């Protein structure tokens, strides 16, 4: 699952971007100032960064420079109200990969993120396969016995987390961390509700009472390796 960091102090905008990207199967974190952004980037790994330039505490340009100076490699999309050619040059020269002016269409934003995160054409397609279930991380598709299963974004991310860790038990707390983010205040009931919905879409009779997703009481959830 691709992790995106949004660095934006306008809560209405960051909330709209977060909701949109999560509907596109991304795991999104939001911070509101430059110093907090650098702190998060120093301890967490992200696949892309959406960065405003006009931030409290530390400007977006300085965040970009410092991140690149210490070897930060995640692609950066600057999203700002500054539309002058000089501002675009400054943003791209400090290490950003793309520059988008507010207001923007959210579809264009996600298209540009896909472009800067795109893997080389020679990169292998990542497909997790257990029993009759296949999950294609690039196409964002799940197939059951060859037929597409339509999952909601969080259901997809839950299944992806379990398949990536097949053979290991994932606790409810770990699933919240992986699917909703480290700062989430969700309750275990939310995980259980999403898990029930996921199971209803992918489970089938497997004989001997076996299910694809097993509940390990008191510990969490498990998908066993084939």
List keywords for this structure.
single chain; 226 residues; alpha/beta; 8 helices
Please, could you describe this protein's structure?
The protein has 226 residues and is α/β, with parallel strands linked by helices. It is built from 8 helices and 11 strands. The protein has helices at residues 11-23, 34-43, 60-69, 85-93, 106-117, 153-164, 172-179, 188-202; strands spanning 3-7, 27-31, 48-51, 76-80, 98-101, 127-130, 133-136, 141-144, 147-149, 213-216, 220-223. Strand 1, helix 1 and strand 2 (27-31) form a beta-alpha-beta unit. The radius of gyration is 19 Å and the shape is elongated.
What's the structural blueprint in terms of helices and strands?
Blueprint (H helix, E strand, L loop, with lengths): L2 E5 L3 H13 L3 E5 L2 H10 L4 E4 L8 H10 L6 E5 L4 H9 L4 E4 L4 H12 L9 E4 L2 E4 L4 E4 L2 E3 L3 H12 L7 H8 L8 H15 L10 E4 L3 E4 L3
Parallel strand pairs: 1-2, 1-3, 3-4, 4-5
Antiparallel strand pairs: 6-7, 7-8, 8-9, 10-11
What string, H for helix and E for strand, traces the elements in order? EHEHEHEHEHEEEEHHHEE
Dominant shape: elongated
Mean pLDDT: 86
Q: Describe the sheet with the most strands.
A: 5 strands, parallel
Helix/strand structural class: alpha/beta
Number of helices: 8
Helix content: 25-40%
Low-confidence region ranges: 205-209
User: What is the C-alpha radius of gyration, as a whole number of Å?
Assistant: 19 Å
Strand order of the largest sheet: 2-1-3-4-5
* Gap between N and C termini: 22 Å
């Amino acid at each position: 699952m691709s992790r995106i960091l949004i660095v934006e102090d306008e809560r209405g905008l960051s909330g709209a971007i977060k909701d949109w990207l999560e509907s596109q199967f991304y795991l999104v974190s939001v911070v509101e100032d430059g110093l907090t952004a650098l702190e998060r980037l120093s301890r967490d790994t992200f696949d892309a960064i959406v960065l405003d330039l006009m931030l409290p505490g530390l400007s977006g340009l300085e965040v970009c420079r410092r991140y690149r100076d210490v070897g930060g490699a995640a692609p950066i999309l600057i999203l700002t109200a500054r539309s002058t050619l000089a501002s675009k040059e400054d943003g791209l020269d400090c290490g950003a990969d793309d520059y988008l002016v507010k207001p923007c269409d959210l579809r264009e934003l996600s298209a540009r993120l896909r472009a800067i995160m795109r893997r080389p054409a020679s990169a292998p397609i990542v497909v997790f396969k257990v029993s009759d279930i296949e999950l294609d991380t690039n196409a964002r598709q799940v197939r059951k016995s060859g037929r597409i299963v339509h999952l909601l974004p969080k259901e997809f991310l839950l299944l992806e987390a379990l398949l990536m860790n097949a053979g290991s038990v994932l606790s409810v707390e770990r699933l919240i961390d992986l699917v909703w983010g480290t700062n989430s205040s969700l309750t275990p009931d939310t995980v259980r509700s999403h898990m029930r919905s996921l199971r209803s879409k992918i489970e089938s009779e497997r004989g001997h009472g076996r299910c694809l997703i097993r509940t390990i009481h008191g510990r969490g959830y498990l998908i066993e390796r084939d």
